Each structure stands twice: as structure tokens, then as C-alpha cells.
Amino acid sequence: MLVADLINYDIPFLRLSDSVGRAIDIMHDAHQNQLPVIEENRFLYLLSDEHLSNYDEELDIFNLPPMEDVPLLHERLHLLQLPVLFQQKNSEMLPVADGEGFFKGMVLQKDVNKEIVDSIFSLPVGLVSVLLNNKDYSLSNISRIAETENVKIMKVFVSGSGSDTENDLQVLLQFNSNEISGAINSLRRFGYNAENLTPGQEIESIDRDRYELLMKYLEI
Predict the structure, then answer these.
(1) E strands, 34-82, in order
(2) Whether 88 contacts 29, CB under 8 Å
(3) How many CB atoms lie within 10 A of CB 25?
(4) Are 160 and 218 in contact (CB under 8 A)?
(5) What is the reported pTM?
(6) 3-class DSSP state for residue 14?
(7) 55 touches 64 (CB < 8 A)
(8) Tens-place pLDDT, residues 100-146
(9) Alpha-carbon gap, residue 153 to 67, rounded angstroms
(10) What CATH architecture applies to the domain 121-218?
(11) Which of 81, 100, 89 minimizes the C-alpha distance to 6?
């Protein structure tokens, strides 16, 4: 799936001529904490209600210092490239442009997360969480170990490990089969902290903690 498939055209935008007070009202009416500033169909930057609250409501946005810039997404960008961008910019939404740089709309983090989760659970396949340090991450090594148990990795999702203090990364592996107990055992023999998150399986308490951590990270 591409970014173009998830553009939300209903998100309102602000103009440089809007006052701080009007901008805050638009945000509240749209139930958003951030909104884009657009001029001549070009994206300028994102403004947050927290940022606006520092200024007099009579001031125009034009007179405010802009917030930190965010990347302008090309509409042909793949969905799986987005989570790391949201995480890096700590933003709830990112702007999308066409091939000529004209503003198309916004993509919301919650919509991206939902689509990723739906894609993970759309097929009866195995899902495994592996917690590890960044320096120890080698997809080729993990794949080699799994293939000795006659399963193959179909999709990989990498994120921060949340509250885990010993490991930097949580790697989610989607396999081509739900018969993954052998692969999990082999990964554990090689020192990997691997847990079964396969939908429909009985999840042990430690596995359920990892599953709930994933859901919390994705805000689902």
C-alpha cells in the first residue's frame, strides 16, 4: 500500500493570514492537536495548539516563528516507510505532496498504524516478537535460523522496544506459516528473546505483555 491510499482529505489547514485565536478554534473543531500551514497549495510547516498557546490570539500566524520542519511525503512512498518518520518527528500527522510538490493532504499516524496491524493479522500466519540490542540485529542471521525450521519470513516490522531496559529494538516477524514453534525454539537456542504473538494462539503471560506493548506502541 502507498501513501496516496491513506491521504485524509478532511483535515483542515491554516493560512499565514489566520490569527492565533482562529487557528486554535479550527484545531479544536477538528479535534486535532496539529494542523498544516498551507500557502498557494504548498506545505510550509505544522503548527501545534501547544505552540500557539504561547502567543497572543490576535497575532497572525505569519508573525510567529515556525515550528520544526517535517518531511514532505511523496504520494508514491510505501506505507512501511512511515512509522520511523512519525517516530523521528514525534508527529501525529505528516503532509503529502504530488510529483510537482503541490500539497495533497495529510496522513495520520493512527491510520498508518491501523493499516499495518490489519496487514499483520489479515492472514493465518505466524507472528513472532524478537527483542534485542541494535548492535545484535541481523535480519539475514534471523532468517537463516528460521529457514532451518522450514519457515520463511514474509514481513518485518522494526520499532523501539518501549519500556524494555535491556533491549533497544522490537522486531516483529511475520512468517508464511503458523507452525512456528520450531523457529521460536531455534531462535531462543541462538540467544534471541523470541515470543509467539500469533493471533488465535494461547498466549503465555510474558507473550501477552509483548503483545500489549505492541498495541500500546501502535495506539490501537
Answers:
(1) 34-39, 42-48, 73-74
(2) no
(3) 13
(4) no
(5) 0.62
(6) strand
(7) yes
(8) 999 999 999 999 988 877 776 665 578 898 988 888 889 899 999 99
(9) 40
(10) 2-Layer Sandwich (3.30)
(11) 81
